[in-house]
Amino acid sequence: MTYRVCFVCTGNICRSPMAESVFRARMEEAGLDGLVEVDSAGTGGWHEGDPADPRTVSVLEANGYGSIHAARQFQASWFSRLDLVIALDADHVKALRRLAPTTADVEKIRLLRSYDPAAGDDLDVPDPYYGGMDGFEECLALVESASPGLLTAIREQVEGRVA
């Protein structure tokens, strides 16, 4: 049974596609790519069908990650097929909670940086859209820092299903 994870940011062209690409690479490295499906979406539909922001693509490619992407808007009906919904900031959590049809669906929502023990109380991944390349590089660093903890949590869930 496939474990499904969706990363969510605002427009699905910066943070969430970056997290999707990084985490997909981590799943492949861990040998879980056949057991875990990773995708992303936005809380809004402004960029639906658009590729990732060129700055996102540039930072991903410079660091050895893939960058094929088309933006889409998160739909409430997706909760039923998802195991985990990873928000990139607190506003995304609020938007997703409003969409969640059930209490069980609300429980699927987590902040990405909650998986990074070094994050402290600052669990938001800042939106790099209105800034320069340094914001995109910071975004990548934050996503990469949270990835080991998220990988461990998902591995436990996947192994629990297989056992």
**If you average the pLDDT, what whole number results?**
96
User: Rg to the nearest angstrom?
Assistant: 15 Å
Biggest sheet descriptor: 4 strands, parallel
| Helix percentage | 40-55%
Assign the structural class, choosing from mainly alpha, mainly beta, alpha/beta, alpha+beta, or little secondary structure.
Answer: alpha/beta
In the predicted model, the low-confidence regions spanning at least 5 consecutive residues are none
How many DSSP helices? 5
Q: Beta-strand percentage?
A: 5-15%
> How are the strands of the largest sheet arranged?
2-1-3-4
Q: Specify the overall morphology.
A: globular
Give an overview of the whole structure:
This protein has 163 residues and is α/β, with parallel strands linked by helices. Helix content is 42%, strand content 13%. It contains five helices and four strands. Strands 2-1-3-4 form a four-stranded parallel beta sheet, sandwiched between helices. Helix 1 links the parallel strand 1 (3-9) and strand 2 (36-42). The protein is globular.
List keywords for this structure.
alpha/beta; single chain; 4-stranded parallel beta sheet
In short:
By secondary structure, this protein is of the alpha/beta class.
What are the SSEs and their pairings?
Blueprint: E1 3-9, H1 15-29, E2 36-42, H2 54-62, E3 84-87, H3 90-99, H4 103-106, E4 109-111, H5 133-162
Parallel strand pairs: 1-2, 1-3, 3-4
Helix pairs in contact: 1-5, 2-5
